[in-house]
Specification:
Helix 2 packs across helix 3. By secondary structure, this protein is mainly alpha-helical. It starts with a helix and ends with a helix. A two-stranded antiparallel sheet has the order 1-2. The model has no long low-confidence stretch (mean pLDDT about 80). It is elongated and about 105 Å long. The chain has 4 helices and 2 strands.
Length: about 130
């Protein structure tokens, strides 16, 4: 069982996936920092508020408060992450994964037979 586990871990796909998860986690942290430290203050500056986006809330009553600012913060982070992933996939598809070149179409058996008949008829007409 230990040997099978070692083979499983040493597969290239598992190592690639682990690297992807680690880089993805670091990228998520970077995007969250970008959103909360740069975008939120800029939005506050544009809207004339001294609060950052994450501090926005709707107070319905003293006990019922909807803190929608954090949700908006997460939506912005998601959109940035999704856009960057989209660009990466588009870049990879364009450069790394080259579209398959279609093999030249082979003529059907009927067409080959008709061409042979045409060539035979052409030879017979030359012989006459």
């Amino acid at each position: 069982m230990l040997k099978e586990f070692k083979q499983f871990i040493n597969r290239g796909n598992i190592v690639d996936m682990a690297v992807g998860v680690i880089i993805g986690g670091a990228f998520t942290t970077l995007v969250k920092s970008f959103t909360s430290n740069l975008i939120n203050p800029l939005l506050g500056l544009v809207t004339g508020s001294d609060h950052s986006l994450s501090q926005l809330s709707l107070r319905v009553s003293s006990r019922l408060v909807f803190t929608y600012g954090e949700f908006l913060n997460d939506v912005i982070s998601f959109l940035i992450t999704a856009f960057v992933v989209f660009l990466m996939v588009k870049f990879i598809n364009k450069t790394v994964i080259k579209p398959r070149q279609e093999a030249p179409k082979q003529p059907s058996d009927e067409l080959v037979t008709l061409r042979e008949i045409k060539d035979l008829l052409a030879e017979q007409s030359k012989e006459k």
